[in-house]
Design brief:
- The chain has 141 residues and is mainly alpha-helical.
- The chain has six helices and two strands, in the order H-H-H-E-H-H-H-E.
- Helix 1 crosses helix 2 and helix 4 crosses helix 5.
- It is elongated, with a radius of gyration of 16 Å.
- It starts with 14 loop residues before the first helix and ends with a strand.
Length: 141
């Protein structure tokens, strides 16, 4: 079971802000990867920028979440994602979380709902987190 926010609030303190910073770092890393792919394709990739960005973003998130339960941005701000049993993500959970994230990003209203939920729910869970029973926690020392 994940830490109780009433008994251990330190695990949830500042997580919405840290998630925003981590997201910004991840966006920059994925954008740099997209530029690299475009350059490697002799600029032909310019015709497929959204597809390349989406594919790199999806792969980056699934791989980093399944290996360390955090993207590189999350690692830099000392966050980790945990499943409902307080375990690190496995490949299936990483895939489902990334799928939920991708769908919510594609629908602005769902993204707005997710942001509001992260800022107002006691475990600071977004929409995908609520559906999967996952949480973002401050990394344990």
């Amino acid at each position: 079971m994940t830490p109780d926010p009433h008994v251990h609030p330190e695990f949830y303190d500042g997580t919405p802000t840290k998630r925003l910073v981590a997201w910004g770092i991840d966006v920059v890393l994925i954008a740099l990867g997209t530029v690299a792919v475009i350059m490697l394709t002799a600029l032909v990739g310019l015709f497929f920028v959204p597809l390349i960005y989406f594919a790199l973003s999806f792969a980056y998130r699934v791989i980093t979440l399944s290996r360390a339960s955090a993207t590189w941005g999350m690692r830099l701000v000392a966050l980790e994602l945990r499943d409902r049993d307080d375990r690190p993500f496995d490949m299936a959970t990483a895939f489902l979380h990334t799928l939920g994230y991708s769908l919510s990003v594609a629908m602005p209203l769902a993204q707005l709902v997710s942001i509001v939920m992260m800022c107002s729910s006691e475990r600071r869970q977004g929409l995908t987190d609520m559906l999967l029973g996952t949480v973002a926690l401050n990394k344990r020392a």
